[in-house]
Automatic annotation (TrEMBL):
The keyword Repeat applies. This is Pentacotripeptide-repeat region of PRORP domain-containing protein. InterPro entries: PPR_rpt, TPR-like_helical_dom_sf. Pfam families: PPR, PPR_2.
Length: 176
């Protein structure tokens, strides 16, 4: 909990003590420190730790990659986010709905609707269902934005939005 309280330096000291005593931190420890760096806008240090992680024979997991992809997206560094996503696809693990959602959100926030839709299509091609649960407003904003930008949503997106609206409203009056 040291990181959540903005005590990253204390957490890093404990991290160093682990290695000094010959104990190898696990992937959860690495992810926690990487996340701490990202939450404090120290993304370059997070990337350095990610690179160190691969040198100590630990494999980054989907959480590791998603933390970094999300941080790059939040900083508007979509090229770096895309490169990290490519590394993930190349080396494993498989991307999940959270990873794809981070990229899609990053592209939308950077006004790159085509890339956002391309990532959405790739996600669907990989049989990963979009997750709009609890986010009907954002889902409808996505739909409206796609239409404004001349992107025709596919049947899966339309079906997902319609199903969600029916489930949440109990009627068909909110359907697209």
């Amino acid at each position: 909990m040291l990181i959540k309280e903005c005590h990253l330096d204390a957490a890093l000291k404990l991290f160093g003590q682990l290695t000094d005593r010959g104990l190898e931190p696990d992937i959860i420890t690495y992810n926690t420190i990487i996340c701490g760096y990202c939450s404090l806008n120290r993304l370059d240090e997070a990337v350095q730790l990610f690179e160190k992680l691969t040198c100590v024979q630990l494999k980054p997991n989907s959480i590791t990659f998603t933390i970094l992809i999300d941080a790059f997206c939040k900083e508007g560094r979509m090229d770096d986010a895309t490169m990290m996503f490519s590394k993930m696809l190349e080396k494993g693990p498989k991307a999940n709905v959270v990873t794809y959602s981070c990229l899609i959100d990053g592209y939308f926030k950077s006004q790159n609707m085509k890339s956002a839709f391309d990532v959405y299509e790739e996600m669907c091609e990989n049989n990963i269902s979009p997750n709009i649960a609890g986010r009907p407003t954002e889902a409808m904003q996505l739909y409206d934005s796609m239409l404004r930008n001349g992107i025709m949503p596919d049947g899966l997106l339309l079906s997902t939005l319609a199903d969600y609206n029916l489930q949440s409203s109990g009627s068909q009056e909110h359907c697209i």
